[in-house]
Amino acid sequence: MPLQERPRPYPLIDADPHAGRVVRYMRSSDYAVWGGATVAGPALLYLYEKVDPTKYRFGISPALRLTGFLGFCAGFMLAYQNSSFRFMGLTENAREAALDAQELGARAKRGEPIYGETDLSEYIQGVAARNSTWSQLKLSAMPWFNLVNHNRHGVDTSKYGESSNQPS
């Protein structure tokens, strides 16, 4: 089933980008958000502890480590979501569009599958695509990443110079 066309402010690069591509295409601003969220949790907890001490007998070190880990995870998901929004055409994506055209165009010229090799059947690829397409919009509720190479990405692959009839 083809993806429903929706108006978006920027061109669609990939409706269901692979997790590896999302991380590879992250910008320095995404890494800054990730780092900021990692530091913000323990910093706020330390500030709260200074304002209203709990006098916990083991100190606040275990809580600082936990909030650091939670901040790291939350920062990653926020950076991942920001990068995914650029693939989906929801935010400015000129840099990603150029990288995408270069990377996937080179794959097409070498005769490789545009979206990577897979050993999965067409049915399982479809199930994976249906489960992960647009999942980046709700990472806060249920983190779900596309870890499967499939050919259902909502774009016309002929722009990469490929002549096969792969469904988009």
Low-confidence stretches: 164-168
Beta content:
under 5%
Q: How many individual helices? A: 5
- In terms of structural class, how would the helical and strand content be classed? mainly alpha
Radius of gyration: 20 Å
The overall strand count is 0
Order of helices and strands: HHHHH
Helix content: 40-55%
Q: How is the main sheet built?
A: none
Give an account of the 3D structure:
By secondary structure, the protein is mainly alpha-helical. It has five helices and no strands. The protein has helices at residues 19-24, 28-51, 61-87, 94-110, 122-132. Helix 2 runs antiparallel to helix 3. It is elongated, with a radius of gyration of 20 Å. The model is unreliable at 164-168 (pLDDT under 50).
From the structure above, extract its key features:
elongated, 168 residues, 51% helix, mainly alpha
Layout of secondary structure:
Layout: H1 19-24, H2 28-51, H3 61-87, H4 94-110, H5 122-132
Helix pairs in contact: 2-3
